[in-house]
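Sequence and structure are no longer studied apart. As an example, we show below a sequence and the tokens encoding its fold:
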Amino acid sequence: MRVLAVDDDPQDLLYVRDTLVKSGYAPIVTGDPGEALRLMEEERPGLVLLDLMLPGADGIELMKDILMLADVPAIFLSAYGQEELVVRAFDTGAVDYVVKPFSPSELAARIRAALRKLAVSEPSEPFVLGDLTIDYADRAGTLAGRPVELMAIEYRLLTELSANSGRVVTYEQLLQRVWKDRGNGDIRPMRTVIKKLRHKLGDDAANPIYIFTEPRVGYRMPKGERPWPTAS
């Protein structure tokens, strides 16, 4: 698995890179926060390590931009352990916070823990409903066998609805699970994403197949079908 590390201290970055290599990960490192988003798009890492204090950038704001591109665990590495910063980091979507200096074994353990949480948060079997298939392992969707190009926020919303198929997922639950409470109770961005998803899936809001609106409550997807077993 590729891991992106962003830290403006060359020695700290070298230390993290060597730790990742010894732990069996493929490191992607940069000291330039402006390069982080490009690397996210090009390299598609499965986890991100971020220094909290970056030159000309707020590490927490950078994490928010990263999470809009990809649904990956983000761990902060920082010598600054002020309580208000730690609380802000977690409230914004970080999965862990490691205070420098740390040992290689501690960092490796924190990464493993973050990846375990990610692994159990999604179903193992693909979701199949009509022509739509969501492959959680590949984090991808297909429609009638053709790939559906999904933004990170679209995939997260579709995953949450499909993983709870047959049940209504309320606006409040979606704000908490998909937007990590960053929407301040405003469901307008959610409606915009739902509209884009329906367009990509060819779903008619007036006569839906995949995404149903429960007025003043939330959204739901019908129960999926069991995928056909692969011939051996």
